[in-house]
């Protein structure tokens, strides 16, 4: 009966994050549009091939849109506010708005040069690539499974955070439903007034749902704590509080000029104490974990591929800065540096080592176990 | 296993105790059904078992509740989690994680069971509840029955000795309800689980109960006994029991099978009698349309002349929702004065069809006309006078903080004379104070208030989405009476419902939907009797004769 749709041991979500951050880091090391486009293509391909069909996985589209918006805004700024890049290829000259003396150094309108635009494009593309990489991590790694890798003492807080996050979609659905209901009352369902009007009922509904969920979680043993000796409890509290105080004091010390001497050691001690407090606090929690994601060979490979891309591009940046940062003055067509490009392709490794996501049964009312087709009628023997 | 010792519960700010003198014991391995009208404290009794009352809800509990020897006064709900499993009315507010398998494991993780044990129990539970093909699915994509099974499974994995269920089948279609009840039956028989369950739809559950606890009125002491005995004195009872009482059978039959075996003489007597119409038939002559309001005159509806006979007309309607084809090729006509029941599985497209009739959903293909207008192109102020919908959650329609303010707003929205809505409400629901907050009304009262609000605009077409969810039999009877008189006055009514008994009492026609298509459309007696899942109990008992309700039989015998 083991379902064929069963989970084929998904990859550790941390591995996806490391892979995506690796690609992101690589993107920050170059402004070569060809390399950036290659990085974008690599991450997009992996996302399309390995993204599961789940609500959180749909955030990728939102990140892509955000990245596009960033790119467009960067270009618009370069056109309207001008660019510090000197250039000779004037594309168009906008009417310049004369600004008063105190706004010296700011320009509105004026010449738009190809060099300035190219620079803005490269720069914007870099930021966009970084954003898309973060989006890829969001789409590939299940946030609630990432949560399972948190230290035990933080788990309950983490559950609260995740539950709170799932409330956002519910809230949006409520707003839609209630605005539709306004239509049933004969009131316009568009516009700000309509939105304000449903605010209170939506919040009421959200509150009621949270209370119901809290009751359900309480009934299912959320917050059960193990008996620990009073001494351990007190030590935990002292360590955590002391550690946090130490972190504050240490940070202050590091940031101020006078405290340079004691800053770092105090900060380190604070962090250590806080970590010890967390570890001790974990003993109060009786939770166990069901099928925790294992950090296996595939996770090493996926995370490693991301890290390798980042490391190779950092190296390339040191060896061949010209290839990674094509010049804009004078304007030249960017060339594709061969071995950094090959390094980017290493980011495709996850497609080879991870399993394809399950394809869920279409439609909400998928075939249940009770819809087993009738067995073939036995062949009738001629009598 | 569960022991109540002279328990009474008083909530903070309440005038008197919600339940009083509750004193009974549920032995291990029994399935006990808690019945009674709305508002008698069934949920309070259930909550007392899981410890939510009073630890979570507040209030004062006197007396003593012990579950598996643990006193709920000293044990919080989380400390009872390993012996009591609780499933509330709405499974969606029960889920903590997002996939089936994780949800099944969540409770065990909280209890700190070793990973091997968790793994084994998850597999066992997946098989027990038939959830194995769904294990990796996001919960949000499951149907209502599947969600309810996951909710039950998620508390079962902790191997509780007691299962507490609050209306587990109310929101489900007949087939999904059977599915859930079969699982409960199996738990009681195979695992010896003790089950305490409250449910309004007695026709679905009473046959499975070993004993019944009746809370006859607010604050009344509960009566405990075998189902047949308790049903004899109960103010709420399913049609099959009503029929048994009418025919004078003792002991009262609880199942269709019991009743059928004794019904031969009754069938003989009824064979010569003609079946009276459950609801007065839609007048052959067109019923009077409500007087046109000033707005109608100002903006003559372009389509009113085109289809004068129909209150609503749907032709070749298709609706897409995302990637899902919610409706395809749906044809439906509704005449004035006619009542139609839309039935079908959860997710078959009933609500979508109602939404299309009221302009909430835009058709992808085909045409919709309701009250002579194209709903999704008509401005809302105009539309309320042509078609009104009472949504599944009547609360969505109510915004104001007092009943009086709600009624004033309704008059304003509908351009009706001041006081119209209040007068309607007084007629439908006497004795509701002006200052009551809509949230403090009972389910049935809230539904009636929403109905009054919608009717203020006198729409010739009235739509109701799942109107009997959470209603007890008394509230249901009142609703049936209102709707019948509305139909007699010429309103066309379309109701989407899972409640076969309601459809039998009200509808002239039943339209069955499956997968977004109309699979049957015909007179109630024919469609309902033809399909076992949608046949009311009386029809099953008296088949092949086409009796649908106890009221019909009573009328014919009188």
From TrEMBL, chain A:
Top-level taxonomic group: Bacteria
Against InterPro entries, the record matches this protein to:
ABC/ECF_trnsptr_transmembrane
Q: How does it sit in the membrane?
A: Multi-pass membrane protein
Bias regions of kind Pro residues — which residues? 366-376
Q: Where in the cell is it found?
A: Membrane
**For this UniProt entry, which segments traverse the membrane?**
16-48, 60-81, 152-173, 237-255, 261-280, 300-319, 331-353
Q: Where is this region: Disordered?
A: 358-383
One matching Pfam family is CbiQ
Naming one, the record's GO cellular component terms include: plasma membrane
**Keywords attached to this entry:** Membrane, Transmembrane, Transmembrane helix
Reply yes or no: does the keyword Acetylation apply: no
PANTHER family on file: COBALT TRANSPORT PROTEIN, PROTEIN ABCI12, CHLOROPLASTIC
Name-wise, this protein is: Cobalt ABC transporter permease
Organism source for this protein? Answer: Streptomyces fumanus
From TrEMBL, chain B:
Source organism's superkingdom?
Bacteria
What Gene3D superfamilies does this protein map onto? P-loop containing nucleotide triphosphate hydrolases
Q: Where in this chain does the record put each ABC transporter domain?
A: 2-243, 312-540
Which Pfam families is this protein grouped with? ABC_tran (PF00005)
InterPro entries to which the protein is assigned, alphabetical = AAA+_ATPase (IPR003593), ABC_transporter-like_ATP-bd (IPR003439), ABC_transporter-like_CS (IPR017871), ABC_transpr_CbiO/EcfA_su (IPR015856), ECF_ABC_transporter_ATP-bd (IPR050095), P-loop_NTPase (IPR027417)
State the UniProt keywords alphabetically.
Answer: ATP-binding, Cell membrane, Membrane, Nucleotide-binding, Repeat, Translocase, Transport
Q: Where in the cell is it found?
A: Cell membrane
In the bilayer, the protein is annotated as: Peripheral membrane protein
Q: Name one GO molecular function term.
A: ATPase-coupled transmembrane transporter activity
Under the heading PROSITE patterns, the entry gives: ABC_TRANSPORTER_1, ABC_TRANSPORTER_2
- Output compositional bias ranges, type Pro residues: 277-291
| Ranges for region Disordered | 273-307
Gene Ontology cellular component? ATP-binding cassette (ABC) transporter complex
Concerning its family, UniProt says: Belongs to the ABC transporter superfamily.
Q: What does this protein do?
A: Probably part of an ABC transporter complex. Responsible for energy coupling to the transport system.
Q: Which named protein is this? A: ABC transporter ATP-binding protein
| Organism whose genome encodes this protein | Streptomyces fumanus
């Amino acid at each position: 009966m083991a379902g064929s749709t069963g989970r084929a041991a998904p990859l550790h979500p941390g591995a996806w994050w490391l892979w995506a951050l690796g690609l992101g880091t690589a993107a920050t090391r170059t402004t070569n549009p060809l390399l950036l486009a290659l990085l974008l293509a690599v991450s997009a391909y992996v996302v399309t091939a390995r993204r599961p069909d789940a609500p959180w996985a749909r955030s990728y589209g939102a990140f892509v849109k955000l990245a596009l918006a960033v790119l467009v805004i960067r270009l618009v700024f370069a056109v309207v506010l001008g660019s510090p890049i000197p250039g000779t290829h004037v594309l168009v000259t906008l009417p310049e708005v004369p600004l008063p003396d105190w706004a010296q150094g700011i320009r509105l309108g004026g010449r738009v040069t190809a060099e300035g635009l190219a620079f803005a494009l490269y720069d914007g593309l870099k930021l966009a690539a970084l954003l898309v990489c973060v989006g890829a991590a969001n789409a590939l790694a299940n946030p609630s499974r990432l949560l399972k890798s948190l230290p035990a003492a933080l788990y309950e807080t983490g559950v609260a955070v995740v539950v709170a996050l799932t409330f956002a979609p519910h809230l949006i659905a409520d707003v839609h439903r209630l605005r539709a209901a306004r239509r049933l009352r004969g009131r316009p369902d568009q516009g700000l007034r309509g939105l304000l009007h449903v605010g209170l009922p939506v919040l009421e509904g959200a509150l009621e749902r949270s209370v119901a969920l809290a009751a359900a979680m309480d009934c299912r043993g959320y917050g059960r704590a193990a008996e620990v000796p009073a001494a351990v409890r007190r030590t935990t509290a002292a360590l955590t509080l002391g550690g946090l105080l130490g972190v504050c004091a240490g940070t202050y010390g590091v940031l101020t000029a006078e405290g340079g001497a004691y800053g770092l050691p105090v900060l380190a001690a604070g962090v250590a104490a806080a970590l010890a407090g967390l570890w001790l606090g974990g003993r109060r929690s009786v939770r166990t974990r069901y099928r925790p994601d294992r950090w296996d060979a595939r996770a090493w490979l996926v995370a490693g591929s991301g890290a390798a891309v980042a490391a190779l591009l950092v190296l390339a940046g040191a060896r061949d800065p010209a290839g990674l940062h094509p010049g804009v003055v004078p304007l030249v067509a960017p060339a594709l540096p061969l071995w950094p490009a090959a390094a980017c392709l290493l980011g495709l490794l996850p497609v080879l080592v991870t399993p394809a996501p399950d394809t869920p049964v279409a439609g909400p009312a998928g075939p249940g176990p009770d819809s087993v087709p009738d067995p073939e009628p036995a062949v009738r023997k001629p009598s | 296993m569960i022991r109540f010792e002279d328990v009474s519960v008083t909530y903070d700010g309440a005038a008197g105790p919600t339940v009083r003198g509750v004193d009974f014991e549920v032995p291990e391995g029994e399935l006990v059904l808690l019945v009674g009208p709305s508002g008698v404290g069934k949920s309070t009794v259930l909550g007392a078992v899981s410890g939510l009352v009073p630890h979570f809800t507040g209030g004062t509990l006197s007396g003593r509740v012990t579950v598996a020897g643990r006193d709920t006064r000293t044990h919080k709900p989380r400390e009872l989690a390993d012996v009591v499993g609780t499933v509330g009315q709405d499974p969606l507010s029960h889920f903590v994680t997002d996939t089936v398998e994780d949800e099944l494991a969540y409770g065990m993780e909280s209890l700190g069971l070793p990973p091997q044990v968790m793994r084994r129990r998850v597999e066992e539970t997946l098989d027990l509840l038939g959830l194995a093909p769904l294990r990796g699915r996001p919960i949000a994509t499951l149907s209502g029955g599947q969600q309810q099974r996951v909710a039950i499974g998620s508390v079962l994995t902790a191997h509780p000795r007691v299962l507490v269920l609050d209306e587990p089948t109310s929101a489900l279609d007949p087939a999904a309800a059977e599915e859930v009840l079969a699982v409960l039956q199996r738990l009681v028989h195979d695992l010896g689980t003790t089950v305490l369950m409250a449910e309004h739809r007695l026709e679905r559950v009473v046959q499975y109960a070993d004993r019944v606890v009746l809370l006859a009125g607010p604050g009344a002491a509960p009566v405990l006994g075998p189902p047949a005995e308790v049903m004899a004195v109960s103010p709420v009872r399913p049609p099959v029991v009503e029929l048994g009482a009418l025919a004078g059978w003792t002991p009262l039959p609880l199942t269709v099978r019991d009743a059928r075996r004794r019904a031969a003489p009754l069938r003989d007597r009824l064979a010569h009698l003609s079946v009276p119409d459950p609801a007065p038939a839609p007048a052959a002559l067109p019923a009077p349309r409500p007087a046109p309001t000033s707005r109608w005159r100002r903006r003559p509806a372009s389509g009113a002349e085109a289809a004068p006979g129909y209150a609503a007309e749907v032709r070749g309607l298709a609706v897409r929702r995302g990637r899902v084809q919610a409706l395809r090729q749906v044809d439906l006509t509704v005449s004035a004065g006619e009542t139609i029941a839309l039935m079908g599985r959860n997710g078959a497209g009933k609500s979508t069809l109602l939404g299309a009739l009221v302009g909430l959903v835009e058709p992808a293909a085909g045409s919709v006309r309701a009250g002579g207008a194209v709903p999704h192109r008509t401005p809302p102020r105009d539309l309320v006078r042509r078609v009104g919908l009472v949504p599944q959650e009547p609360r969505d329609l109510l915004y104001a903080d007092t009943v009086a303010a709600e009624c004033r707003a309704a008059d304003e929205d509908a351009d009706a004379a001041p006081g119209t809505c209040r007068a309607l409400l007084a007629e439908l629901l006497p004795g509701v104070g002006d200052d009551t907050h809509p949230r403090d009304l009972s389910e049935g009262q809230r539904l009636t208030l929403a109905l009054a609000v919608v009717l203020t605009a006198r729409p010739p077409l009235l739509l109701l989405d799942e109107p009997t969810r959470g209603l007890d039999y008394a509230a249901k009877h009142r609703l049936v009476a209102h709707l019948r008189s509305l139909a007699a006055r010429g309103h066309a009514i379309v109701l989407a419902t899972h409640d076969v008994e309601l459809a039998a009492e009200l509808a002239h026609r039943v339209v069955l939907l499956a997968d977004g298509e109309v699979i049957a459309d015909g007179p109630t007696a024919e469609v309902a009797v033809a399909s076992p899942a949608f046949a009311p109990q009386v029809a099953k008992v008296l088949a092949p004769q086409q009796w649908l309700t106890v009221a019909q039989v009573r009328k014919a015998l009188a």
